[in-house]
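Quick check before the chapter quiz. The format below is the same one you will see on the exam, so make sure you can read both the input and the output lines.
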Amino acid sequence: MKSFERFLKSGLYIAIIFGITLLAWSFYKETPPHVFNLYNMIGVFVLILINSFLLVSYRNTLYTIPIAIAFLFIINNSTISFESVNDMGFPFIAFFTAITGFIIHFIRFKPQIKRKRFFWGFALIALSYVIPLLYTPFSISNLTVSMMGVLYFGLYLFYSSTVEGDLDYLFKIMMLANILLTAQVGFYIYRGYVLNPELDFYHRIYAGWGRNLGWANINDMCFYIALTFPSYLYFIFKKPQTYLLWFLMILPTAVVILSKSRGGIIGYVIVVLGVIVFFLLRGNKKHLTHGLIFLVITGTIAYFTREIFYIWWDFFLDSIGDDLNTFSSGRIDIYTFGLEIFKQNPIFGGGWLSINQYPNGNLFGNRIFMYHSTLIQALAAMGLFGFLALLLHYTQILTYIFKHPTLEKFLFLIGYFASQVHGLIDNVQYAVPYSILIVLFLSIFETAPRQTHFESIDYRYHLIKSNEKGIC
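Here is the expected output.
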């Protein structure tokens, strides 16, 4: 088991897990009579079996985190709704199969659940989710969505008490997750190219097949890519002689542009600027030389493919419309409605399904829909109590980062800040995958024994000792 555990600590293991995820997700067509297609279900069950084996076999749950992240990005049903969830038996069977591993883990290893650094932030957010249930109309849908905050809190308690953190491992996860997400958007672009042979090359690569990728909208992909993008810089600092990582960064940049997500571009520009500033402030001569070479090459590529940017700009101009509400894809009306809901229920909000009262709510069908802004969502659904709980959560994160500044903390902050800016105009903070990712990342951070401190005199030139291993 010790030799197998060395494999679990490697980047190869994480890559295999995300490879299974990409393969299972890429079979996006439905296969009757299943609501989820057969290949997607097989991929999910394979991950469940691996996850259960690791929970039963190892006290340290760190090795299950790549699988937990894989679950977030593997579902490929683009029309999922409350009705479809109720109609299909598969998710419930999968859930009860997966929960068995957690039960056995508790019985065998008897982990002690402890109150850690981010306890109160997650606890109050969970409470703000459920309080509106006391006075809003009861429904299974409302109960299900309102209990998500409790789920995040429970996951935090479990992982913060059972994970033996390793920041090098975390950044392997983040970088490989970024590659996974980039590959999913790349597949989306490829399918659009194949399905539109009548268009010229540049318009074909912009076509896509439909904005919903199964587990998320194409806009969502951009803030997950932005959140994990700074992980490349971690390994560039660790192994400055590696050129491949520089050019891997071109791929997420390219797919974000080709996604045509205006909000995604905003968040991504912020994360790229943050990475550049951090790089200039903390990079050594070798880093700066490699960076200059990278910029020259990417600038040359951008020049010869400049038609891509012309088309994007034309798309942007066409999307402006006659007023700000049209330009924002109806967001101004949604924000106004959300503030009205807040005025009606200022203390604890109108609840998570208050958006169903929106006059044009039928446009969204039965999808789980939110207010397209972190701040409006907090105020409308959870009132001042939820808003203050969110502020406490932010304060705890920032206090943790700035109390003892480290390389790893600031790289995380760059991606986190960029995604939160995107959250001002989109469903970010309270999106299920995002919330779970933050729980997992923070659990690893606060349980990790080793971090790279800025105070080290040798920081720029001896960031990582030469005897440490690379990505894999």
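If your answer matched, good. The chain has 23 helices and no strands.
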